[in-house]
Design a protein that fits this description.
mainly alpha
Length: about 160
């Protein structure tokens, strides 16, 4: 099964990682980690999304784990595009839309802003809850409401 996934999606996942890292050598290293992570979590893949979407989310998390391990802190505007998109195709967002998303995030209350930034950096809800001193379900709710606000405003402004 994993070999089939690798052969079908390795090029797409590699291109996605290159778009995140801007470094083909690092992308190649992360690609190996992505498929290793996929192997260890293959049993939990429920099919709620396509295999490619599942692998992209693993790639995104692998990249964020790399950033955290190496203590690389990216500014929110660089993370926004990755946070609000689900596929590499979606990452072709216009600069205007990204700027507007950053403005909306800036207008959120502090806990919501922190939650969005931490989720964009790949932190779990548990880690966010611990940092903010709130329940894990509260962290999930904060992110859900923030994403809904972003989507609603973008839709009203014709940017979605």
């Amino acid at each position: 099964m994993l070999e089939k996934l690798y052969m079908a999606y390795k090029d797409d996942i590699f291109r996605y990682l290159v778009s995140l890292t801007h470094d083909s050598q690092l992308a190649e290293e992360l690609l190996s980690e992505v498929f290793l992570a996929a192997l260890t979590s293959l049993h939990s893949f429920r099919g709620d999304s396509s295999e490619k979407t599942w692998l992209i989310s693993i790639a995104r998390n692998t990249y964020f784990n790399h950033l955290r391990k190496n203590k690389i802190d990216l500014p929110l505007d660089m993370l926004t595009g990755v946070y609000v998109t689900d596929t590499p195709l979606d990452s072709l967002l216009t600069r205007e839309k990204l700027e507007r998303v950053n403005e909306i995030i800036s207008s959120l209350d502090e806990k919501s802003r922190i939650t969005v930034k931490m989720r964009a950096e790949g932190y779990s809800y548990k880690e966010i809850a611990q940092r903010l001193g709130i329940a894990e379900t509260s962290a999930r709710t904060l992110e859900f409401r923030a994403k809904n606000k972003i989507r609603t405003i973008l839709a009203k402004e014709g940017l979605l």
